[in-house]
Amino acid sequence: RPFHVEPTNIVSVNDDMQRVTDEASAMNKRIHYYSRLTSPADRALIAPDHVLPAPDEIYVYSPLGTAFKVNSCADGYGKNSSIVTIFMIWNTMMGTSILSIPWGIKQAGFTSGIILIILMGILTLYCCYRVVKSRKTIPLIDTSNWEFPDVCKYYFGSFGQWSSLLFSMVSLVGAMVVYWVLMSNFLFNTGKFIYNFVHDINVTDIVPGTNGSNKVICPSATSNYPPQNRSLMFSSHNNTSFELFEEWWDKSQTVPFYLIAILLPLLNLKSPSFFAKFNVLGTVSVVYLVFLVTVKAAHLGIHLEYNWFTENEFFVPEFRIQFPQLTGVLTLAFFIHNCVITLLQNNKNQENNVRDLSVAYFLVGLTYLYVGVIIFASFPSPPLSKECIEQNFLDNFPSDDIMSFIARIFLLFQMMTVYPLLGYLARVQLLRQFFGNAYPSIFHVLILNVVIVGAGVAMARFYPNIGGIIRYSGATCGLAFVFVYPSLIYVISLHRAGQLTWPALITHIFIILLGLANLIAQFLL
């Protein structure tokens, strides 16, 4: 874009030219990063032509599937204030893991659950700090456009390149499987609510639960009851129609397959940039969940009893041997390590990166603590046992609960817009490595998407346990990106600089062993 120069003010010209130069440099860096994520012919992550000259628009795309379009501050060009940076990091980390935090606290025990959330937050923050600093350990090379997988490739060669791709795919595909299970769940409950409302049907699920207007149910206690999908109908004009609906609207038998008709065509689109416009729904969903939890707790009250090592009929011990199930979930809940460099390099004041990252982690941990502790503490025990807390805490509220219905609608629509973005990132990372093109042909893309969708359908059909899926995928990808690679790179860089000490070596070996133990424990407990 032509730049108009006023010859009467040389100082102003120099300042303006410097501003434009800085602006162009920042924009070029962003464009370079986007171009590495896509093929040359694909402009999904490339700023459009009408955006390139503008200093007030920034596009940040997280490999975890969250897209941001933010305006720069008035005191900077092409950069974000600390507040915006903190919000972007918080918004990127806050995901489906929040639904499983109360279940994780139940598996670990109330007291140990709170302690583990704090400790895992501190540990993952430290490893994230090591990721941010990793680029500075590479001398004589311009690493301004590098992300953490590039650093892994520099230190570990082709092994680092392919292993980072593998673990990145684990996180992406794991997230897509969790999304499919949750979308099936939300679509089922939403359809059930709408059908009953339209046909004026009064239905009660055949599951144990509390009475009153704020009903809480225990779906996991249905082993001695008919299948979970079945219900008792108290009033209806057409019993046959209701039974037919329940036959064709089943949470695990039919609904996961209905989603294929909606989402598989969207996965095959060359550019998913349209769906990035709806990512504000993620923030709305989290805020609404916090509101829902607060209102439910106000009505249900607090139900706690401290049994440090023994169980009883209604409460769980404060410390339980299943605590690694929570650490597996938390590894993914605090996972931002493979895209944090991109988010922070757009921070206007780079000297505040550590502070802003710490504040963002504090807010994420506070959100997890609030939701997890409030749901666990307010769960009505008695008459229900704390063991009834589900891996998706929304399952503890019946399908006809209005507030839960609204939450499921929000989350369903948000996940249906994020799912194509995750699929696109999986396609870019995998197909570009093997074929040099993110869209080699519709056949290649279709085969990949069918495999990914098939994994989601299979899990929704046979293993619809989001807590289990999250902890397995979180511990697996976290082993590489959270525990092993950041620690190894730091130790190697200290050794090359002649600054490695025994305390530093022992500390980071211990962190690596913690990540390995976290992964192994998922398969033993």
Automatic annotation (TrEMBL):
It is a multi-pass membrane protein. Keywords: Amino-acid transport, Disulfide bond, Endosome, Glycoprotein, Lysosome, Membrane, Metal-binding, Sodium, Transmembrane, Transmembrane helix, Transport. It is found in: Late endosome membrane; Lysosome membrane. The keyword Transport applies. The chain crosses the membrane at residues 83-103, 109-129, 162-182, 253-269, 281-302, 322-344, 356-377, 405-426, 438-463, 469-492, 504-524. GO terms for molecular function: L-amino acid transmembrane transporter activity; metal ion binding. It holds the Pfam family Aa_trans. Its main location: membrane. Residues 81-192, 259-520 form the Amino acid transporter transmembrane domain. GO terms for cellular component: late endosome membrane; lysosomal membrane. The keyword Glycoprotein applies. It catalyses: L-leucine(in) = L-leucine(out); L-glutamine(out) = L-glutamine(in); L-asparagine(out) = L-asparagine(in); L-tyrosine(in) = L-tyrosine(out). PANTHER family: AMINO ACID TRANSPORTER, NEUTRAL AMINO ACID TRANSPORTER 9. Belongs to the amino acid/polyamine transporter 2 family. SLC38A9 subfamily. This is Neutral amino acid transporter 9. The gene is Slc38a9.
